Structure formats: structure tokens, C-alpha cells
Amino acid sequence: MDLKSFSINSDYKNVSSACFIAKTFCEDHSVNENTTKEIELCLAEALNNIIKHSYKGDNKNLIDIDLIFDENKFTFSLSDYGLPRTNVDKPKLEFDPNDIDSLPEGGMGLFIISQLMDESTYISENGKNTFTVSKIIS
């Protein structure tokens, strides 16, 4: 198992740096390019959700990030100390495919994560929220 841990401030401008670190970590473990891009996208969506919803856009808070590669599984775990998620149900994307105007403008991040990744868990305990997402690497 290989673990890389780091923290970023809850500022949208730091999301790309975290994704670059994840990309490099994937490349170091010979994860294919398409899977790496999916991981980067899901990490960006999850970090943006924390900044927007948990920290309400306040950029003076920390997000702890663990990247884990264990045999054939890549995992990222994000911890924050803001507001906990209120809806932990599996996200659904409901819209009329014949009506482009019915496509939601937001709220698709968790749906994308659920579609591209293999597992996810969310725990909120003692003021700490942890979102863990895994992808089986073939």
C-alpha cells in the first residue's frame, strides 16, 4: 500500500493543485490515462462540493486529503470540519432528455462520482466529515 497525505485550504484555486498531485500519484502507479482523468474529475467535484456546501465558500479552512493505492484499488479520502452533508442517499439525475432546458445546472457532482467510481462512503463524526471514494484499477 502507498499513501500520500496532504492538506489544502478550502479555496477553489487549490482544487487544480490537488488534482495535479492525484494525477502524478496515479501516473507513479501506472494507472491508465482514462482512469486517471476520471479520478481527477471526481476529486475536483468532491473538493468543490466541500468548499461550496461544507465551508459555504469560506477559503480559510482545511481539507485533508489522503491518496491511497493498494494493489488494484485507488482511493481518495477527503476530510473537512465544516457543515455535514444532509443528504447521503445515492444521487439520481432526473431530467427529460428531450428537453435540454430541464438539465440541471448544478448538483451533478455526486452523480458523476457515483457513476465513475466503484465505492463511496460518507461519515460525519465529532465535527469531522470524511468522504471516501474508491476505483478498482484493472
* Beta-strand residue fraction: 25-35%
CATH fold field value = Heat Shock Protein 90
- Characterize the largest beta sheet: strand count, sense, and whether it forms a barrel: 5 strands, antiparallel
Helix and strand run: EHHEEHEE
Q: So what's the CATH class? A: Alpha Beta
Shape: globular
Q: What is the structural class?
A: alpha+beta
The side-by-side strand order for the widest beta sheet comes to 1-2-3-5-4
Low-confidence stretches: none
- Average pLDDT works out at 90
From the alpha carbons, calculate the radius of gyration and give it in angstroms: 15 Å
Tally the helices: 3
Give the termini separation. Answer: 16 Å
In CATH, what is the homologous superfamily? Histidine kinase-like ATPase, C-terminal domain
What does this structure look like?
A five-stranded antiparallel sheet has the order 1-2-3-5-4, with helices on one face. A hairpin with a 2-residue loop joins β2 and β3. The radius of gyration is 15 Å and the shape is globular. The mean pLDDT is 90. It has one domain: Histidine kinase-like ATPase, C-terminal domain (Heat Shock Protein 90, 2-Layer Sandwich), CATH 3.30.565. The protein has three helices and five strands. It starts with a strand and ends with a strand. With 138 residues, it is α+β, with helices and mostly antiparallel strands.
